[in-house]
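Subject: design request, 170 residues
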C-alpha cells in the first residue's frame, strides 16, 4: 500500500509542478515589467538563494530519527483528522474499514515523511542539532540518538495501544 500511495502522491505533485510551470510561463508572457512582477522575481531569487543543508552533510542517525518523528506526527494528525469527518449511515463501516484507514494513514505519513512534504523533520533536526551542540562533548551523538529512538518507539507503542483500544471499543 505504501508504494501505491507514494506513486499517487508523486503523480499528483508532478502534475501540479507542470501546471505551475505553465502558469508561470503564461504570466511571464502576459506581464510587463510592473513593480509587482519585480517584487515577485526578487522574492523568488531570495528564496532560491536560501539553501538547506544537503542530506550528505547531516548526521544520518539524527536525520533518520527526525524523519521518523515526522512520520509519527503526521500519522497521528491523519488519524485525528479522519475522526473529525462525520460517518455516513448509508454504508455500514466495520473493523476492516478501520484497519484499512489506519494502514492508509500510516502509508501516507511514511510517504510524506520520506519526501519531506511538511518540513517537520527539518525543523526537528535543526532543533536537535542545536541542542546537541549545546551539550558538552562528553555526550556523543549515539546516546542522544538512542534517547530519541526510545521516545519514537514509545510514541509508536502508544499509538498501537490506542488503536487496539479503539478497535476493542467498536
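Subject: RE: design request

Done. Sequence follows.
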Amino acid at each position: 500500500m505504501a508504494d501505491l500511495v507514494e506513486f499517487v502522491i508523486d503523480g499528483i505533485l508532478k502534475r501540479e509542478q507542470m501546471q505551475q510551470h505553465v502558469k508561470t510561463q503564461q504570466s511571464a508572457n502576459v506581464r510587463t515589467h510592473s513593480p509587482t512582477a519585480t517584487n515577485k522575481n526578487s522574492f523568488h531569487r531570495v528564496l532560491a538563494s536560501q539553501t538547506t543543508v544537503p542530506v550528505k552533510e547531516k548526521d544520518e542517525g539524527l536525520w533518520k530519527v527526525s524523519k521518523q518523528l515526522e512520520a509519527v506526527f503526521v500519522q497521528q494528525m491523519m488519524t485525528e483528522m479522519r475522526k473529525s469527518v462525520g460517518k455516513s449511515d448509508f454504508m455500514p463501516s466495520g473493523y476492516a474499514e478501520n484497519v484499512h484507514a489506519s494502514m492508509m494513514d500510516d502509508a501516507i505519513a511514511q510517504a510524506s515523511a520520506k519526501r519531506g512534504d511538511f518540513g517537520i523533520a527539518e525543523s526537528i533536526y535543526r532543533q536537535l542539532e542545536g541542542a546537541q551542540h549545546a551539550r558538552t562533548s562528553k555526550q556523543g551523538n549515539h546516546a542522544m540518538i538512542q534517547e530519541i529512538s526510545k521516545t519514537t518507539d514509545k510514541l509508536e507503542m502508544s499509538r498501537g495501544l490506542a488503536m487496539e483500544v479503539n478497535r476493542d471499543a467498536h
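The CA atoms of residues 95 and 168 lie 10 Å apart.
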